[in-house]
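re: ur question from earlier - yeah i can do the single chain one, its not a big deal. heres the input i used so u can compare w yours
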Amino acid sequence: MKVICIGRNYADHAKELGTETPTEPIFFLKPTTACLYPGQPVKLPDIAGEIEHELELVVMIDSYAKDVPVNMSLGLVASFTVGLDLTARTLQNELKAKGLPWEKAKAWDGSAVLGEVELPMTASTDLQALSLELKKNGNTVQKDTTAHMIFTVAELIAYVSRFITLEPGDLLFTGTPAGIGPIAPGDVLEGFLNGKKMLSATVAKG
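and the output i got, formated as tokens:
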């Protein structure tokens, strides 16, 4: 199992970061130790600067696959939920400025927060017609629809499989919409998919 994360997959998010809209998917990996499961508190790492929330649609792969055609890639999706790709933004910017890899800012333990309920993929499921919403302390901070993804879930799966063999249990974080922001101890984060609460986590000191 591995965690595959997509960067800058919504144009408004790329804009808020001050970066260009990508012409092909950008992906990076997190280790399995990054996964934070339902009921566990979000523990802030001992990293200076801001830690930011990024709400995303997350899909689970259910079989081995390599070089998957786009028109077959959704057949690999077993289920889906929402998740949080937590980012040590200050550190990430520092590493980027030095031309260094930025796994330290993205792949720390507990940085991939998973939703409480996984929804099964069916023939009628349209992954590009889902609403996403994140509330922080009861206030909506991120809200968008997967229709605004630059690259569809099918395209992401096909693209990643060109470089990395997909395996059962792999998780694909599909990118975050605009509205990212800092989190602090005591914050309560709630993630919604089509209006249904799928994720609830409280932020604590590490």
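The chain has one domain: 3-205. not sure if urs matches, ping me
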